[in-house]
Amino acid sequence: MQKNNNIMIKKISAVDRDDFIRLYEEAGWWRKSYEKDVSFIDGLVMGSTCFIGAFEGNTMVGMGRAVSDGVSDAYIQDVVILKAYRGKGIGAKILSKILRYLRGRGIDWIGLIAEPGQEPFYNRYGFVRMKKHVPMKLEV
Ligand SMILES: CC(C)(COP(=O)(O)OP(=O)(O)OC[C@H]1O[C@@H](n2cnc3c(N)ncnc32)[C@H](O)[C@@H]1OP(=O)(O)O)[C@@H](O)C(=O)NCCC(=O)NCCS
After folding, report:
1. What DSSP designation does 121 have?
2. Which of 97, 121, 124 to mutate to test the pocket of ligand 1 (most atoms within 8 A of CB)?
């Protein structure tokens, strides 16, 4: 794997909204309806238990976050790397930093919902498909 040593991985409490939108767009998660008021991005970052950004200079080229009660359970969300930066170990570094942060606080139930095709990425770091549970989401 080609490593990218110019990338700084760090925990942050605010993001450049344009960087965030570009990452969401490249993941296919951005919705036209979000454009009405993009200030939700600030709340999403501030309200996360742990938000990690990967930076080349001042530009965020990757991110990932966890939401949690802070003591017991956590969900990993929004792990995405800009297409041009994938395959360089950045996603792995972000995930490791999130997991270190959570485990360091004694949080030992850590779940996520993987995008189709990304399951093997998470398998490498110990995540397994839950056989007796079904992911659900409110759709009204
Ligand atoms: C999934 C994603 C975050 C991985 O980030 P990345 O920086 O490209 O991953 P890395 O380079 O750190 O990969 C780490 C290892 O996992 C492997 N890997 C990465 N994605 C993989 C996949 N989809 N399937 C199998 N292996 C994968 C890499 O080959 C690498 O293996 P190595 O250490 O043996 O070389 C990135 O592909 C992405 O942004 N995808 C689109 C958004 C998305 O679907 N996110 C997941 C939400 S559930």
Report:
1. H
2. 121
